[in-house]
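Summarise this fold before class:
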Amino acid sequence: MSVRIQFDSPHSFYTNLDFITGRVILSLTQDETVSAIIVKLEGESRSQLMRPSINLNQQYNRRDQRNTIANENHKILYKVSQVFPSLDPSTGTSLGLAYTLRAGKHEYPFRIKIPFNNGCCNPQAQQMGPGSGFGGLGLGGLQQMQYRHVKKTLPPSLTGFPGEAEIRYYVKVTVQRPSLFKENRRSAIGFKFLPIEPPRPPPTTNEAYARRPFGFTAGLAGHAKKTSMFRKNPTPLSNTAPKGEIDARLPSPAILTCNEPLPLRLIARKLNESAENVFLTSLSVHLFGFTEVRAQDVSRTETSTWVLMSMNGLSIPVGKPSDPVRTETVIDSSLWNAIPLPNTIAPSFETCNLSRKYELEARVGLGYGVIGEIQPQIITLPLRFQIEIYSGISPPPALLSAMASTAPTTVQNRPALPTRPGVGVPHIPNQPVPAPDPLYPPQLGTPGAAAVEDAPPSYEDAMADEISPADGPRREYSGVTDVNAPSMDEKGGAAPRYSTIGGVPPRGGGSGGGGRGTII
C-alpha cells in the first residue's frame, strides 16, 4: 500500500481564503481493509530555547539537560476533512466501520479552505477527549491549554533558525486501518503560506522622517603638495565649511511592501553660507529584522540583516553654493527606486510564540569641497525608522465592505451602567469635571479621559463563507527554503543550534536577549 497527495494547480504560495484542492492517490497491490481516509490541513509554530544553566558542573547530566530546554509547539491551523467513506448527511457519521478496497489505484478529491486567524487560541478546540479538540490529541490538547495564546492572523511560513524556531504548513493524509496489527499509512506535503495584509489606512500627504544635522570643520586637511609639473594646484577653500541637515522620509504610517521598491525620499537642507559644495559620497540602505522567540519562561531576540543597496565612491553634488539658506534639495531617487525588497523577507507578524518586527536604516555619506576635489573629511549619518512590512496581497473588496459595515464603538457612546442605590449614603449631584493638568493627563476610563475605540473587527469576525479568495498579483516569496524538509522534531537535534558558551546561550537566557543573524 502506498498513499500520496497531489495538488490541483499548485501555487507558489497560498494565502487566506484560498481553497487547497487536490487528490489523495491510494495504490494497492492487493485487497486492503480500511476504516477511513482523513485529510488534515495543519500549521505549526515551533520554538525551542535553552535556559541558562545554573550549575555548570551538571551540564552533562541527562535529566538536567532536559530541564534546560524549553519548547512550545502551537497548532495554529488544524482542519479535518474525511474523504472516505462519505459521511451520512443526517448524522454526520460514517455508515460503516470497515471497508474492503480492491487492488488497484484509487483517487479521492479534497477541498479545504484556509481560514484567517490562528486556531490554537480557541478554547473549545483545546478540549481533551476523542473526537474533540484537535482531532482528539489527548495530552497534546492539554499542552496547548497551558501555553499563552493570542488571536492573530495566521503568520507566514518561516525558517532560517535551525533547531530554534520555524513556522510550517502542510496537508497530511491518514489511511486508518481497523486491524491492531497493521499500522496506519500517512503522507504529507508542505506548502508556503503568506497572509493577506491588513486594511491599509487611506493615503495622505503625511510623512514619517528621521533627521540628522551635519557640519564640516574647515582647515582640517591641508593642501596637497604638487607631485608633478602637470598637476594643477589645489583650489583654496574658504574659512567657513558647509552645515546642514539630512532628512529621510517615508509615507506615514511607514509601511513597506514585499517585493516592491522603497518609497524613500532623501532631502538635504542648507543651514549656512559657504563657498564649497556638499557631495553625496556613499549611500547604503539596511533592513533589520527582529524575531522574538518565546518558549515558556525563556525568550530570545534574533537579529537578521538585509543589505538592500550599497554604493560607494560617489561624487554627486547636493545643491549649489549659491543657494540661499534653508534651501531644500531632493536627492535623486533613481539610486534606489528600482531595487525591490528581497523575496526572502517575510511580512511583519505576531503569533503566540514568535513575532517579527523591522527597522530600516539609511546611511548617508557626505563630503565637501569643489567639483573634482572632494576633501578627505567624510561624515556618515545613520537615519533609522521603525517600519511595518505588508505582504502586498490585498484583501477582497467584499471583505473590506463587510468590515466597514461594522461601526466601532467608543467608551463615550456605550450605554451607561445603572446607578446602584447605597444604604445610608446621601445623594451627591453630578459635579462638573475640572480641566486636567496638561502635564498629567487622566488615565483611560477616568472622567475627562479621551475616548478610546474598541479593537477593530478581525477578518474572521467580518468574513462570510461566500467571500471569494483574494484576486490580484502575487509576488514571489522564499521564506522557506524547502517546504518538505524534516521538522524540528524529526531532525534529531535536541538543543537549539545557536552558539553556546558553557551551556549558556549568549544574551538569550532572559527576556530581551539578543542574537546575531546573517547577512543575506
